[in-house]
Amino acid sequence: MTEALPPALYEKLETLLATLASYGRVAVAFSAGVDSTVVARAAQQACGDDAVAVTAVSPSLASGEREQAEQLAQQIGIRHVVIETEEFDNPDYLKNEPNRCYFCKTELYTRLGHILPQLDVDVIANGANVDDQGDHRPGMVAAGEHAVRSPLLDVGMTKQDVRDLAQHWDLPVWDKPAMPCLSSRIAYGVGVTTERVRRVDEAEKYLREEFGLLEFRVRHEANELARIEVSIDELPRLLETSNRLAITAKLRELGFAFVTIDLEGFRSGSLNSVIAVDDLQVLGSD
Fold first, then answer.
1. Which residues contact 69 (CB under 8 A, 6 or more apart)?
2. Least confident of 92-96, 257-261, 277-281
3. What is the rounded distance in angstroms from the CA atom of residue 257 to the CA atom of residue 255?
4. Which of 40, 87, 150, 224 is the most exposed place for a label (fewest CB within 10 A)?
């Protein structure tokens, strides 16, 4: 443990624990991101053996995420179950329209719902927090349709609250950048395929390991074009001749026909900028 929590955050934590305890037996949709890790840690404290963390595995899961989920669950001391989801069998998901996430989360929550008796739990909880309400999140529509609880949101926890609590609990993901699924890197209208998500995964793994990048994206645009987003501070290094040539050669080897570096730098959710406001209202925004 680190130093004591500020009173306001301590009060939110107490409310979070009470909220989770009121669920009785709970399955946490556990991705190994900071939000779901904090929910899993709190659920273990509040519910003990009546809590289980469930990690969904599919081609859209980035390299290393399953292994990190297993390590975190062991550190937390919560029961951990891995399930395979089959969103890649759904044509509506593969079309990759702006509501793609709805079909992914529907698959996840439907499968979780089917195995709740096997898991010996009654309620599904996710890691949505207050700051998620202003973003385009059709997956939250699916959560509502499946009676999924959002305890962080219910007790008013912001993303900063979550990170502060994770650091207080010595959880190694307290400063982990957001790691949405690999399909989110593919531009809307470009079909999701196992080959494209594999290509993105390998490209990001290469940039992470060879250049030490932390917060960045390889966006898969139409015509097999890779658009790399990194922080503005990292741009000069990647544009150095030797690095630029190495990156280009590697990504072409992976199957990209064109390789670009976005001069605007990294922006979380930048692919959503092409969605019309009316579409956001129809699809659901949280």
1. 30, 31, 32, 53, 55, 80, 82
2. 277-281
3. 6
4. 224
Q: Do 23 and 47 form a contact (C-beta atoms < 8 A)?
A: yes
| Residue 39 contacts residue 152 (beta carbons within 8 Å) | yes
What CATH number is given to the structural domain containing 257? 3.30.300
Instruction: Report the alpha-carbon angle 70-71-77, nearest 5.
Output: 90
What is the percent of the chain where pLDDT is above 70?
A: 92
Amino acid identity at 252? R
User: Looking at the structure, do residues 141 and 219 belong to the same domain, yes or no?
Assistant: no
Distance, in Å, from the CA atom of 45 to the CA atom of 248, rounded to the nearest integer, reads 48
pLDDT of 283 over the 70 cut: no
Instruction: Tell me: do 116 and 252 sit in the same domain.
Output: no
For 156-212, what is each residue's pLDDT tens digit? 999 999 999 999 999 999 999 988 999 999 999 999 999 999 999 999 999 999 999
Distance from the first to the final alpha carbon of the chain: 33
132-159 confidence digits (pLDDT tens) = 876 567 889 999 999 999 999 999 999 9
Of 275, 265, 277, 278, give the one whose Cα is nearest residue 101: 275
CA distances from 234 to 215, 239, 250 (A): 10, 9, 18
Count other Cβ atoms within 10 Å, centred on residue 232: 10
Closest CA to 129 of 144, 148, 150: 150
Q: What angle do CA 237, 250, 88 make, to 5 degrees?
A: 115
Do residue 148 and residue 56 come from a single domain? Answer: yes
Mean residue pLDDT across the chain: 93
Domain, as residue range, for 41: 7-168
